[in-house]
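Internal tracking record. Fields below are filled automatically when a chain is submitted to the structure queue. Please do not edit lines marked as system-generated. If the sequence contains nonstandard residues, flag them in the REMARKS field before resubmitting.
Queue: standard
Priority: normal
Entity type: single polypeptide chain
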Amino acid sequence: MIMEEMTSPEFAAGLKKTRTAILPIGSLEEHGRHLPLITDTMHIAALARAAARKIDVFVAPAIPYGLCRSTARHPGTVTIGFDTVRALVRDVGRSLYHQGIRRLIIATGHGGLSHQSALLEAGDDLLAACPDLVVAVASVIDLLRDQVADLLTTPNDAHSGELETSIVMHLAPDLVKGTSPKEYPGFPAPILVRNKTAYWPGGVWGDPGAASEAKGRELVSRGVEALVRLIKKVNEFEEARS
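SYSTEM-GENERATED OUTPUT FOLLOWS
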């Protein structure tokens, strides 16, 4: 049930089928010189919509902005702060709760660690504010973690590389503009740097050249099945109470 396409009466009727919703979170972020800025949002929204065709679940409109630390100075990246991410997701989640949602999956297509930490904080805020709400926070990395070893050939592939390029080749081939060179960032951790583009000029973490549409089709299929399993797990969850 895609909320942005539903009428108010349709939403009310949908609550008789399920009280579970997915809130997709993405980003507007550079993805090399070959993938669209909306890659993360496109990916998680596609998984959520496909999952909704397999199991009763509400899908809220995707939030297309996130916290992007390492790519903040790359052309096209639009980042929002930790507190903004936390407050935005918390407020949307609280409003969904007041509309009758009792199980919420905060699903992110953007895998930045600071971004994910903000989502976890928002989830804890919602647990404190909504006594009977079940909350799960998951990234596409979580969904695919144990399901890619037989498909991907690039070690340590993380951003704009084999995985993400394959997925966009499948979901929106017209938006793939050639390719980018294989690259890994060279940040001098644990030292923090101001000009991050100097240490990561191309904005690729992996090898886009190893991507294919067939891999993307299979990755999306596996991601959808993993999300459906998560929905079922959330639906069945009963928190132990002392």
